[in-house]
Amino acid sequence: MRGCKDGKERIACRLWVGGTMGALVSWWLLLEVLGLVGLPLAARLFGQASIYSYVFSKIISVVSITYVAWVLGHTGLAYGVALQLGVIVFAVGNVVLAWRDRGSLRQWLAHGGVKEAMRADLWWTAAFLFFAWQRALHPHIVDQEKYMDFAFFNTLIRTQQMPPEDPWMSGLPFNYYYFGYLMNANLARLLPWPSPVTYNLCVATLGGLVFAQLAAIGWQLTQRHAVAWLTGGFGVLLGNLDGLWQVLEKASLVDMDYFRSTRIVGRDATINEFPYFTVIHGDLHPHLSVMPISVLLIGWLLLRRPWSDIAVRGVTTVGELLRILVLGAVFGAMVATSPWELPVGIMVTFLLLQRELPLRPLVAWPRVRAGLIALGVLVVGYVAFLPFYLHFQAPQGGVGFKLATTKLHEFLTVFGALLIFPGWYFVQQLRGQPRVQQYGQLIVALFSLALVIGVLTGKAVAVLMGAFVLAALWVSYGSETAETRAPVLLALCASVALLACELVYIKDPYGERLYRMNTVFKLYLQSWFLLAIASPWCAWRLWQTGRSLAWGVRPAVAAAVLLVAATACYPLGVTATRLRYLDRGLTLDGNFYLRQQHPDDFAAIEWMRANVTDLPVILEASGNPYSYYARFSSNTGLPTVMGWANHEGLWRSHEPSVEARRREVASIYSAAKLEEVQPLLERYRVRYIVVGELERRDFKPESLEKFRQLRVAFSQGSTTIYER
Questions:
Q1: Domain range annotation of the chain
Q2: Which residue from 395, 462, 475, 633 has the highest number of Cβ atoms inside 10 Å of its Cβ?
């Protein structure tokens, strides 16, 4: 451990190492148990017990248990009891399914099921341990928006009510997408480990699940181990090309600026996160928590057997109706976790449901039926999560239209490696089309001219992705069969999403310069996963056919492999940079920085965790976002009068009460006499008042003296907690 010396400190370090390993092993076992318990349901949904259904059974278990407990919690049942009942209901239901399907399950086990399960667990375990190691290299739950995530996480571990209380605006319910936080908190509730450890384990779990699920999709599409690993790698292990540029600039892998690589397009005007960064960065945001649910939806829809005839002949049996209802529930869980998944999610759902149909006639009853089914999925998802939407007030928004000026080299830095295989495959397939052969030179000339004009006018990305959309559409229905169409349709969805980023944006309060920051952020991330599936599949098809461009297969393969290998510079560089600090040791304790840098606050926070039950209101200084402010509410989950006012303002459409609370918190601390602020303390039902390093820095000592009239609940060094 970092900083371990002699005597008692060395003993404490050894105990902590043991605790970390114990948490890691028990957490892995918990996910294994959830995967095994949920296998009968997964096998029913996916049509049979297989490596494919087993890989997805873990996230199916987590989502199902959370949903049942969440619904029960809205009936007035204490949430701790609701969670226990959710586990029991899910387990009993799967026991019943296992008994009813015992023949097929026994047959699967007898014909290589154990070997398949071990392979799936290898994917999951390897990725989980890798991301746990990455978090152990940099475990601190601080900086950026981790305090926001940790506040939600801790509150949902404590809460006994639904909807939960906002930890940064006491007395009010959450007005944010909390279902993903609840899934993670439920896992933490099931094991007796401290939240600074389980938070990091949740991050590693999400990364591990996504890798295993993507690897399973690659295996299902090709039956090739290399493609399985490549799909998982493309999805969540590789970076963009900025890692290569940094290596070339510094002539070294170390000193990698891992944050710079997410601010490429327009530099600070957009966010260009990719899954590897999102996981190792460790903000337990909705866009991270939703990843395994989104991949679950895609993975389920990629199967032809459950959906092959629904769009053609409609829903004709009770079983098919139930399948649509469950699909709607999964879709609803995805959108409730992160509403940004809605537009791409509904596009993927519609296209994969109607992939059996030819393109012409474009308007035909089967295609209309597929659209109605997709709409039904959307409606079911909304109804399934109606208790959330009844309490949620969406911020003001809307859709804006503006032709962006994305620089081509910046865009290709982000997506170049993921687009090369689909682009190459589209060209190969189109070369075989009679009309393309007839007008090939004209098409190339027109595209080249449009691209040149696009570069000169700053619209090259729109031209490029427009060409990708047309090519993917043509290839999907021109040269692919229903059996092979799905991956190309995913590439089509990604191309449409990337093109949309150049044309439209979702309005938010970030101002003119950042007008499409979140639109690019979320759609780029979703497009990454779609291309991570499509790109290895296209590479495999190219390898199978042995055909290539006129300049030969070997140079093309070499160029593509080098380009993909270049994306490994980012994860290698970030890891090499973090390994420079390995002498500090490894830990999953997200509060280690707190213990070292703020020992008095840390001791007070630990006292609160050990001695304060339920959710009494605490008072602490409110200050700037992305800072040390709100450290008590974030690290304990106890609601405070006002946390980061900036974020609350965004979540609540800048309600005047947000700024009013911020001023009142300052008034309570700065007032000369306790009697002056008693009405405010009563209004907000404040029980504990924190006077620590931030409060002593922001307010005059004489104004803080008034709190000495209250009972001292805890005191160490510069930090005192008063109780009313």
A1: 8-303, 399-566, 598-723
A2: 633
